[in-house]
Design goal:
283 residues; alpha+beta; two-stranded antiparallel ribbon; 7 helices; HotDog_dom_sf; N-terminal half of MaoC dehydratase
């Protein structure tokens, strides 16, 4: 049986100690499209060492940033073919602005497994601390495994973020590059779904798709730049649900509503939803 929730739920995935340097942060930002205007002071805070700041979404990829092999979905009670897997949801809460260099330790566990009938959802939670044991950030993520449901588990929650009944306060257009996925894979995700046309075709896609976490980072940056003047220190968290795929070269359209200490976001390509239930939280 590919999924055994009695074994999976609550299982520890262990601790990992890792480090990052300014060069890692720069590569991550460039892989999201930073520096498109190389004379912009805002862009240079992402793309050069002087006054470098770190997008909070970097924390999600930092533990695996130097990985060079395709990931495997092999956990206690879970064995799934990589071709069946899509990112479902992603959330990060930063406890302070991320430093440009750090040594950190992250502890990860499977917090839940949901049965959606034709698919399964595996939820992971993780906490990262710095070398002094002080909290850096926490994450919560889920993967959607097609064809792996039907094992009799809970369907899980279905709550969604309610948007205001008015026009958005901001509409942001963000083009992606045709080679965006080939750049982003250098940030530690070598899943061939994003680079190998034959693998993508076997998974049911006409061509390689953009990493969900690349879209996640691009939209976070777009909102920070378009609404907050490029100041990442105002952000305490960013959460989203992945609603559809993006193909490299497409243009993302983000609609943003301001609401107290939250920015509510939806993102689409043409009329196709890409990110929903998206909230950028402010201090």
């Amino acid at each position: 049986m590919p999924i055994d929730p009695s074994v999976a739920i609550g299982a520890s995935l262990g601790e990992t100690t890792f480090e990052w340097m300014p060069s890692d942060v720069l590569l991550y930002h460039l892989a999201l499209g930073a520096g498109a205007n190389p004379t912009s002071e805002v862009e240079l805070r992402y793309a050069t060492e002087p006054d470098l700041q770190v997008l909070p979404t970097f924390g999600v990829v930092a533990p695996n940033f130097k990985r060079t092999k395709p990931p495997a979905v092999s956990y206690p009670g879970v064995e799934i073919d990589l071709a069946k897997v899509l990112h479902g949801q992603q959330e990060i809460t930063v406890h302070r602005p991320l430093p440009v260099r750090a040594t950190a330790t992250i502890s990860t566990r499977i917090s839940d497994v949901y049965d959606k009938g034709k698919a399964a959802v595996i939820v992971q939670e993780a906490t990262a601390v710095d070398s002094a044991g002080e909290p850096l950030y926490t994450t919560r993520s889920s993967i959607f495994a097609r064809g792996e449901g039907g094992f009799g588990g809970s369907r899980g929650p279905s709550a969604s973020v309610e948007l205001p009944g008015r026009a958005p306060d901001f509409v942001l257009e963000t083009p992606t590059l045709p080679q965006q996925a080939l750049l982003y894979r250098l940030c530690g995700d070598r899943n061939p779904l994003h680079s190998d046309p034959a693998f993508a075709a076997a998974a049911g896609f006409p061509r390689p798709i953009l990493h969900g976490l690349c879209t996640y980072g691009i939209v976070c940056k777009a909102v920070v730049d378009g609404v907050l003047g490029g100041d990442v220190s105002q952000v305490s968290g960013f959460a989203t649900r992945f609603a559809g795929v993006v193909y490299p070269g497409e243009t993302l359209r983000s609609q943003v509503w301001q609401e107290d200490k939250r920015l509510l976001v939806t993102c689409s390509v043409d009329d196709r939803p890409v990110l929903t239930d998206t909230v950028l939280s402010l201090w």
